Amino acid sequence: MSSSSLRTCLVLVLLLGVSLAAQAAEPTPESALATHNARGVRLNQTAMGVLLGWAVLNLGTGTVGHFTTEGERRAFFQANAAWNVVNLAIAGFGLHGQLTATPETWDLARSLAEGQKMEKLLLLNTGLDVGYIAFGGLLLERGLRKDSAQLRGWGQSLLLQGAFLLLFDAALWGLNWRLNSQLTARLVPAPHGVGLMLTWP
User: Fold this and answer.
1) CA distance 34 to 40
2) Inter-axis angle of helices 29-68 and 149-184, to 10 degrees?
3) Is 147 left (phi over 0), alpha (psi -120 to 50) or beta?
């Protein structure tokens, strides 16, 4: 075999190898779906970690504040601690659910259902957060009107906690919505018009 023929064969083998490597690197719809699901679970794990940190911070400062302050400030710290017992439980259960999830096993229907479920839950929570803020404002107004340090402290606490949760739930809804939109944008009708399928890229 001449050197030019050998060179041509080597170039063809090299091109074939590069082509195969490029094809192997391209994600399939199945691997892309597993990656998408893992991103969603990581996002919500991080969010539950943030909520857990907020709850621990408020429980700590609330407990210290209860023993070191009086009047309105004491009521504020007491309500912060009490409120975050609930946040601690929600964050704990939520984090456990995300850590034990197996997103790599979800098919397309399960992936879509999980994304929609999280979005709906966060929208519901956002509505409740507005209610918490309104109730906090009501308690504060009533405390001012009746000159009640306890009601003023509780109202201020609910305003703070409701505002934090509103920002938290709204931001997390936006992040989940954006991630889920990336998935739904890749859906096309399945062959023969029955159902949907995922395309990639």
Assistant:
1) 10
2) 170
3) left
Six-digit token pair at 190? 């399945």
Chunk the chain into consecutive blocks of 10 residues (it has 201) and report each block's average pLDDT, rounded to whole numbers.
54 48 54 90 96 97 96 97 96 94 90 94 97 98 97 98 97 96 78 61 55
Model pTM score: 0.81
Q: Answer for the pair 118, 44: CB distance below 8 angstroms, yes or no.
A: yes
Structure token pair of residue 36: 């998408």
Q: List 197's β-bridge partners, or say none.
A: 188
Question: How far is 122 from 128, CA to CA, in rounded Å?
Answer: 10
- DSSP code, position 199: -
Sequence length of the chain is 201
Q: Which two tokens stand for residue 188?
A: 């096309």
Q: Angle at CA 166, nearest 5°, toward 168 and 82? A: 90
Amino acid symbol at 191: P
Place of tokens 């892309």: 32
- Written as six digits, the tokens of 16 are 């074939």
